[in-house]
Specification:
It is built from 3 helices and 22 strands. The chain is α+β, with helices and mostly antiparallel strands.
Length: 391
């Protein structure tokens, strides 16, 4: 019996030793700590003059445009717009204006004719009223009572008739004035449309305000203006940048941007010159994360970086790849994030104690995407398990 018990104990110890040997572990030693995040972006000129589409009615189509990075002289053509839509609008406005002017002339003739008829009727009634008043005799010895009453009724009728024609004249004048005002308003509208079209035809060309290199802007789809593109009034097409001062606009994924702040050091390289490194410093960090592409669910923090020195290789719009140093320290005790576990709001690791692993409560400080700095709970030379032994 004792023999079999001894065999069982040996097998159990062998199994435990085998399990301990199969547990992946790591010996902790102080080492430098660096927390970097990768970002992509582009160069942009701090000072630039915008090239915008003219303020006109409705969108315009580009008929001619200079290629990006073309060296322009002051007065050189940058973009020319298709005039056909404006010419069509101008012809339509001319035809409508001619129609309104013809209606206005006809309305004035008809109104003058109607007013002339009313004025003639008023003159006749006034003359009849004068005759009736002049030859009215109220003496009963000369005219009978019936004749006198008939004369008085005739005068009352003429007076009412005169009042009616006066009312008709005033009513027609008010109505005619309203019709004239409406036609004049239509005339002003067509004149405005014609003037807008004329101004648009005069602003079909955009020319360089001074010497510089043309840089075209990309829309939300990443497309830049080209022949046939539609642009809206006032839309920015591109710019003439000042190449002497350029900064970087970088985009960092939101969940990797913790700890970003001004003053952090940046190293970057141009996509067109991958072998040459440049240095810079973060000068601004956006407070709000935004999407960059319509179908990309990720959100990015925008970071502005000032290069340590300018280079003749810098061109606005050039793509760059950068590395931002968030934190760094010398000789820190680092542990992989995969070895840290949580229980009841406390962090712990599995630390080796003799031949077994035990839970050890720890406190950590700065973290990178892969490691964390141990502040309390572990010492150099400790061995920790890289997996959760409870699972």
């Amino acid at each position: 019996m004792k023999f079999w018990l001894t065999i069982a104990i040996c097998l159990l110890l062998t199994a435990c030793q085998t399990e301990q040997q199969q547990t992946p572990s790591l010996e902790l030693q102080p080492q430098p700590f660096q927390h970097r995040v990768q970002a992509e972006g582009e160069l942009f000129a701090v000072n630039a003059v915008s090239i915008n589409a003219p303020q006109s009615r409705g969108p315009r189509l580009i008929a001619e445009i200079q290629a990006e990075y073309t060296q322009l002289q002051e007065g050189d053509l940058v973009v020319r717009f298709d005039p056909r839509q404006l010419q069509r609008e101008q012809r339509n406005a001319d035809h409508a204006l001619a129609t309104v002017q013809a209606e206005l002339a006809q309305q004035q003739v008809e109104q003058n004719s109607e007013l002339g008829t009313i004025a003639l009727s008023l003159a006749l009634v006034s003359q009849e009223f004068g005759f009736a008043d002049q030859f009215s005799i109220d003496d009963v010895q000369i005219r009978s009572r019936l004749e006198i009453l008939d004369s008085l009724q005739n005068k009352a009728y003429l007076e009412e008739k005169q009042n009616f024609f006066n009312w008709q004249e005033h009513s027609f004048t008010d109505k005619a004035q309203g019709q004239l005002d409406l036609l004049q308003l239509r005339q002003q509208q067509q004149q405005t449309l014609r003037q807008v079209a004329s101004d648009g035809l005069e602003a079909l060309e955009v020319r360089a305000p001074y010497d510089g290199i043309l840089v075209l802007d990309a829309d939300w789809r990443g497309q830049k203006a080209e022949v046939g593109s539609m642009v809206f009034p006032g839309q920015r097409i591109g710019s003439l940048p000042d190449l002497s001062l350029q900064h970087l606009k970088l985009y960092v994924i939101e969940h990797e941007a913790s700890g970003l702040r001004s003053g952090q050091q940046v190293t970057f390289q141009l996509a067109a010159q991958p072998g040459q490194q440049f240095a810079g410093e973060v000068i601004q960090v956006s407070q709000v994360a935004q999407s960059r592409q319509r179908r990309d669910p990720r959100r990015y923090i925008e970071v502005t970086v000032a290069p340590a020195q300018q280079s003749e290789l810098f061109l606005p719009g050039s793509r760059v790849k950068a590395s931002i140093m968030l934190n760094q320290a010398e000789q820190q005790l680092l542990i992989p994030l995969q070895a840290i576990f949580a229980e009841q709001n406390q962090l712990y690791v599995w630390r080796k104690n003799g031949r077994t692993f035990e839970k050890q409560i720890i406190e950590i400080g700065h973290k990178s995407l892969t490691h964390a700095v141990v502040i309390q709970g572990l010492s150099p030379g400790d061995h920790i398990a890289l997996i959760d032994l409870d699972s």
